[in-house]
Amino acid sequence: MSLPQPRIRFAVPEDDEALGRIDRDTWSYLHAVVPPPRPPHPPFFGERSGPRDHLVAELAGRAVGYIRLALPTPLPTNAHVRQVQGLAVATEARGRGVGRLLVRAAVGEARRQGARRITLRVLGHNTPARKLYEAEGFVVEGVLPGEFLLDGAYVDDVLMGRSLLDGVRRSAAARDS
């Protein structure tokens, strides 16, 4: 018997507590550059990112993960870029492809919004996340060595990205040959 596939949807304001809980429950220096969360916990959605900036993975009517997709800056000169600014999957949903589905959904949504590129930052020691991103077509575009001091160790900040024009480039190359 196969397990049900997660449904991917946009977040709604009512997801605030569930996504905040996932964020708190999955906190680790493997991916976080801020100290562990302590009560009182602020709302998950805020001034800088609201429900429409998040895609949610849902299983059996319950949020089990999210990915935040945003503009990297407010500048019109890079409005053609989208950036993944957070990804978390509840512990009980790991190993079911939820992270991969969320990354693919973010890539699709970025394309739908007309973006030409998608970027992200990942900590150098977060091997599982780096492998996932690489498998989904992201490449290392830069490294900031020792950018963060986390739990007594200096950790690199790895900048990754990918073009969203893959099909367009292939078509143009085919025409030119």
The count of helical stretches stands at 4
Runs in which pLDDT lies below 50 for 5 or more consecutive residues are: 169-177
> In terms of structural class, how would the helical and strand content be classed?
alpha+beta
Q: How large, in whole angstroms, is the Cα Rg? A: 17 Å
Query: What share of the residues lie within helices?
Result: 25-40%
Order of helices and strands: EHEEEHEHEEH
Total number of strands: 7
Beta-strand portion reads 25-35%
Strand order of the largest sheet: 1-2-3-4-5-7-6
Q: Tell me the overall shape.
A: globular
Could you tell me how far the N terminus lies from the C terminus, measured between alpha carbons in angstroms?
49 Å
What does this structure look like?
This protein has a seven-stranded mixed sheet with strand order 1-2-3-4-5-7-6, with helices on both faces. The chain is built from four helices and seven strands; from the N terminus they run βαβββαβαββα. It is globular, with a radius of gyration of 17 Å. The protein is of the alpha+beta class.
